[in-house]
Every structure is written in structure tokens, then in C-alpha cells.
Design goal:
The chain has helices spanning 2-7, 81-84, 88-114, 120-129, 164-167, 173-176, 178-190, 218-235, 238-259, 284-303, 309-326, 346-349, 360-369, 385-392, 401-415, 462-474, 478-491, 517-523, and strands at residues 138-140, 146-148, 151-152, 157-158, 271-272, 278-279, 379-380, 416-417, 438-439, 442-443, 526-528, 533-536, 543-548, 552-559, 562-570, 576-579, 582-584. It is of the alpha+beta class and 586 residues long. The chain folds into 3 domains: 1-57 and 68-114, no CATH class; 115-353 and 363-523, Glycosyltransferase (Alpha/alpha barrel); 524-586, Maltose phosphorylase, domain 3. α16 packs antiparallel against α17.
């Protein structure tokens, strides 16, 4: 009947019903003469001010919420627009009256972004994953604060709470919407962090304090300290840093006493991480976060005239330990350790956890290989992830760059596969399989693969592929980085997988926004609002690229040694330009 009505151009009108509707059809009659063109503009508006979403368990004896905080207008999540607009008519009116202005500004962004000379695969990897920002992965509550899932299931969000270790990878929001990104830091350090410094790495929704009944995430919490440094340099807001610093110090001190109580400069006690397990003993990945966080707090504390000597000493000790004990001559590894620690033995520590209960077989493996779910002598693609986050946050590399580059080259050599036909993956093979190529999370090229390595070791995640690619570029290995990007985008070419949905634990998965780091990887372009300095460290010669800052966006061009900045929206206060470490005139 619907198609009959369409053929006859018959408009069917049914009155709205009070309860759930099974759906509706929208007819837009158009008559076309031969060779004639017409455009039909369909403007869709919705207004759903209430939900039944409430996540996170409240602490016992939780005090009554202060209404001025904005978090107790409803016990459930309410979207930001429900405060901006009081009803559907206001939303419709805004859409109608603002459409031309919004479209013009969107076109400015599009033209500036694609008015670039960077390789097409890089622009595609960055732009396609900006779709995540328009997906249900990202929410904004009534007081304007961001909150996010990791990704989306078909009918619900997937993995709640702006998960700190997943959102470590995402570099788009801090540059495109810096003020919104800072709300995530507020939640982490001033809402989800208790007086002892323990951070719940999954924030409650509506955003509010939650019970601290699980491990802190070492990579997430340490990464957050680097991200505070990043947000300070992007915003140029020294008062914001001053207000934040006491919370950052509490967090840093908690991390030290929890994971490095013997003050060696490495994460040694069991530490939870983005692979949903705990690493036992020092490892390159989480120690790179630790050193990055120590470097960050040293820089921030020194600026505020705070005593940072303890952090400086730990940083130097950690560098030496990582070089002497975790570098195998080619890449950084893990020294599995479970005896002589403050933590109980792994069998007792795993009780009542999701990966609990050691079978007799697992107990035998414990004595032979160590706790379940480690990586040991493996070549881990995320093995120097913390140093990447430090670099893209504007910090100097806390580790010898030669060793970091060696690790990245080993990851490219051993973990990138251009054909996975013979690769065995008993976990989630649809990410990459058969004739697909992909960067494996971990391999054991020199032997020593564990019987029960960390859970996802055989998989391929695009968020890791892009961070490795951009880190390779930062290290000067441009072609290797581009090879990794092309391999990922070839899987998402639209033939089998959606080019705008690089899924992991759900669709529109946040980790894939590590692709934004590719812009900085190739060009080294970064604006420091504290020093009003534009930094450029091109790995590709002359270029034209997109730049987004706290105060506007536009293009930066390097040509024949000369730098040009064209802001198409907003402005940029540049007092100094530094190209490959040398000061230049703008």
C-alpha cells in the first residue's frame, strides 16, 4: 500500500498517537521536467529531554546532591540540548533560523581541512573517524560536560564511563573542542577521584561521585596527567592549571605508592590497563605512561614553583631501569614478576574478579610462566604508547629517542601483516581476517609466547594502528607509517566494512580517533597557547595542513622555508614560530 501511494503521489495523513509509534512515512512530491534538477532539503528535528539511563553505583551514605551542581535535576541522564531548548518548537526555530550560518561554518571547516597537501589516506583516516563525534558514542549532559561510551551496540551504548584508558588514544576532541575535552579532565580528577587519589576509570552518568570498588587503571590515570598538561598548553589557561594541580599531585602520588612503592621509577605492582587485565611486574607500555606522567607533573609543578624533586628523581630512575632492564636490544618487553610484591599472589588477587578462579592447570602455569594474561618477551604494538601520548601532548620524549624508534621499527617489522590468511585468531577475527592486512597487537618473534597471553593479543585494532603510524612518522619513518594507515583503510574501503565505523567493542569506537594524531605526525604542527608559539617539525618537506586551536581553525603552510598561517575561523595569537627547533619569522 505504501508503494501504491507513492506511485499515485497520494499523501496519507494520520494523526499522531500518544503511545509508541510503529513508525511513519515521509512524502515529498517533486515534479521534474527532462534534464531538470531540483534539491529537496529535509530538516529533521527531535526533542527527547528524558531518559532512563543511570550508570555507576553510588557510595554508601551518599550526601544529598547540591542542586546548584546541575547533576540532580533528574536521577537520569538528560541531554544538553534539553536545557538549551525548552521544547521542540524552540529546537525547530533554532534549526530554521540558524541553518544558513551553520552550513556556512561547516563548509569553512570542510574546505580548510581538505585544503591540505597531506596524503589522501591520512586525510581519509582522520575525517572518516570524526563521524564518531556525531554518533551516540558521545553524550553531553545538561551542564555541558561530556560523557562517552567506548562504542555503541545496535540498541545501547557499549562500555560505559568515558573510559580513561580508551580515551587516551582519542586526539580529535582536545583540538577541535578543547573546552569540552577539559570537562573530561574535571570529571576524572574532581569527581571520579577520591581523597586518596584513586580514580574510577569509568565515570558515572549523570556525572557524580561513584563507589571506588575496582582497580584504578594505570594507563588511564597516568595518561590523564599527561592530558592535563596537554589541555593546559592548548588552552593557555594558567589559572586552570593552578586550580587543577593539587588534584593532579594527589593522583600522581597515589600512582607512585600503588604501582611503584619501592620507588624504582617503573610500574611493578599489578596494574590494570586497557586490555582489561593486570600486568604483573615492570613492562614497557605502562612504564612509558609512568615516565610521561612524571615528566608532565615535573613541567607543570616547575611552572607553578612547586617542589618536583621527587618526581624528577623517579623519572631519571625509570629511564635507567627501562633502558637497562626492559630493552632487549631491539624493543621493550615485560619482566613478569609476582613474588616479592605487596600484592597478594595472583590466585588470591583474582578472587571475585571477572577473570577469577585459577584452575589447577592455570596454577601449574603460574609456577612455570607467571600470572595469566601477560606479554613477557613479546613485541607489543602499544609498547611505547605513553611516549606517543607525551609527544602529541607537547612534551619532549622522556626516553632515549633512538630506543623508542627501534621499538617502533620492530613493531612495523614483526606485527604488520599484509595478509592474515594464515593467522590464527580465536578471539574477534572479524576486525581483520583472511586476505586483510593489519597490525597485530602483539607477536613473539624471538619465542617465549605464553600459554595464556593477554586476552586480545591476536587481534587488530585501528586505534592502535593509527597511534603506531603517527608515532613512526614523528620518528621520521613516514613510509612505514603510511603503510600502516593504508593497510587499515584498505579494510574499511566500503566493500565489506563501513568506512565511517571502525568498530571494536561496539560501533564508532572512540580509540579510532587516534587517527587525528597523524596530522601532527607528518607535520609536527602544534600551537602552544602558553608561549604563543607555533611549532613545526615537518617529516615530508613542504606542506599545507589543517590546524585547530582553542581560538579558531585554519591552515598552516610551509613552503621554501617560509611559514604562512591562514585562520579561516577565529584568530591565532602567534608570537613565535619554531621550525625543526629553529626560530623563524612568520
Amino acid at each position: 500500500m505504501t508503494w501504491k501511494n507513492v506511485e499515485e503521489s497520494k499523501l496519507v495523513q494520520n494523526a499522531a498517537i500518544k503511545n509508541s509509534s510503529p513508525g511513519a512515512s515521509l512524502y515529498v512530491p517533486v515534479k521534474l521536467a527532462p534534464n531538470e534538477e531540483k534539491t529537496v532539503k529535509v530538516m529533521l528535528t527531535w526533542y527527547v529531554p528524558h531518559s532512563k539511563i543511570r550508570l555507576g553505583r553510588d557510595p554508601e551514605n551518599t550526601p544529598k546532591c547540591d542542586p546548584s551542581s546541575g547533576c540532580c535535576e533528574s536521577p537520569y541522564y538528560q541531554p544538553w540540548y534539553s536545557k538549551k531548548f525548552t521544547n521542540i518548537n524552540e529546537a525547530v526555530n533554532y534549526w530554521n533560523t540558524s541553518y544558513a550560518d551553520l552550513k556556512t561554518k561547516s563548509q569553512l571547516f570542510t574546505d580548510a581541512f581538505f585544503g591540505s597537501t597531506l596524503p589522501a589516506e591520512v586525510l581519509e583516516a582522520v575525517a572518516a573517524n570524526l563521524s564518531i563525534l556525531k554518533s551516540p558514542t558521545v553524550l553531553r549532559q545538561r551542564d555541558g560536560k561530556l560523557w562517552a561510551w567506548e562504542g555503541c551496540n545496535d540498541n545501547s551504548g557499549c562500555c560505559e564511563g568515558s573510559c580513561t584508558h580508551v580515551w587516551n588514544y582519542a586526539q580529535a576532541i582536545p583540538h577541535l573542542f578543547p573546552a569540552l575535552e577539559r570537562t573530561l579532565r574535571h570529571t576524572e580528577f574532581q569527581v571520579s577521584q577520591n581523597n586518596e587519589g584513586h580514580q574510577a576509570f569509568r565515570a558515572a552518568l549523570p556525572i557524580r561521585p561513584r563507589v571506588h570498588d575496582f582497580y584504578a587503571a594505570a594507563d588511564g590515570q597516568l595518561g590523564g596527567i599527561m592530558k592535563v598538561y596537554r589541555e593546559w598548553r592548548i588552552s593557555g589557561d594558567n589559572q586552570w592549571l593552578k586550580d587543577f594541580y593539587p588534584h593532579v599531585k594527589t593522583s600522581m602520588d597515589y600512582c607512585i605508592e600503588t604501582w611503584d612503592p619501592r620507588h624504582k621509577g617503573v610500574t611493578e605492582e599489578p596494574h590494570h590497563n586497557t586490555y582489561d587485565i593486570e600486568f604483573w611486574g615492570p613492562d614497557g607500555m605502562c612504564t612509558s605512561f609512568y615516565l610521561g606522567a612524571l615528566s608532565s607533573i615535573t613541567q607543570m609543578g616547575s611552572f607553578l614553583n612547586e617542589d618536583v624533586s621527587k618526581y624528577q628523581q623517579l623519572l631519571e630512575s625509570g629511564k635507567k631501569f627501562m633502558t637497562d632492564s626492559l630493552y632487549d636490544g631491539e624493543y621493550f618487553i615485560q619482566n613478569i614478576k609476582w613474588k616479592g610484591l605487596n600484592a597478594p599472589n595472583p590466585v588470591d588477587a583474582s578472587k571475585n574478579m571477572w577473570n577469577s578462579n585459577y584452575s589447577e592447570e592455570a596454577k601449574a602455569l603460574l609456577e612455570k610462566e607467571g600470572p595469566k594474561y601477560q606479554y613477557g618477551k613479546g613485541c607489543l604494538s602499544d609498547g611505547v604508547l605513553g611516549f606517543w601520548l607525551a609527544n602529541v601532548s607537547g612534551l619532549k620524549n622522556p626516553m632515549d629517542e633512538t630506543l623508542v624508534k627501534s621499538h617502533l621499527n620492530a613493531v612495523y617489522k614483526y606485527n604488520l601483516k599484509h595478509d592474515l590468511t594464515d593467522h590464527v585468531n580465536p578471539q574477534r577475527p572479524s576486525f581483520a581476517l583472511g586476505e586483510d592486512g593489519g597490525l597485530l597487537l602483539c607477536t613473539w618473534p624471538k619465542g617465549g609466547k605464553l600459554s595464556l597471553p593477554f586476552v586480545y593479543s591476536n587481534e587488530v585494532w585501528t586505534g592502535i594502528e593509527y597511534q603506531v603510524a603517527s608515532h613512526l612518522m614523528l620518528a621520521g619513518e613516514v613510509e612505514k607509517g603510511l603503510d600502516v594507515v593504508r593497510t587499515a583503510r584498505d579494510r574499511y574501503d566500503g566493500k565489506i566494512r563501513n568506512p565511517f565505523d571502525e568498530y571494536e567493542c561496539g560501533h564508532w569506537y572512540a580509540r579510532a580517533m587516534s587517527s587525528y594524531g597523524l596530522l601532527q605526525g607528518l607535520t609536527g604542527v602544534r600551537y602552544d597557547a602558553v608561549d604563543h608559539t607555533l611549532y613545526i617539525d615537518s617529516k615530508i618537506g613542504d606542506f599545507k595542513t589543517f590546524l585547530s586551536t582553542e581560538t579558531g581553525f585554519g591552515n598552516v603552510e610551509l613552503k621554501d622555508g617560509k611559514v604562512a598561517v591562514n585562520m579561516v575561523y577565529g584568530k591565532l595569537d602567534v608570537k613565535k614560530v619554531v621550525v625543526s627547533g629553529i626560530e623563524h619569522q612568520l
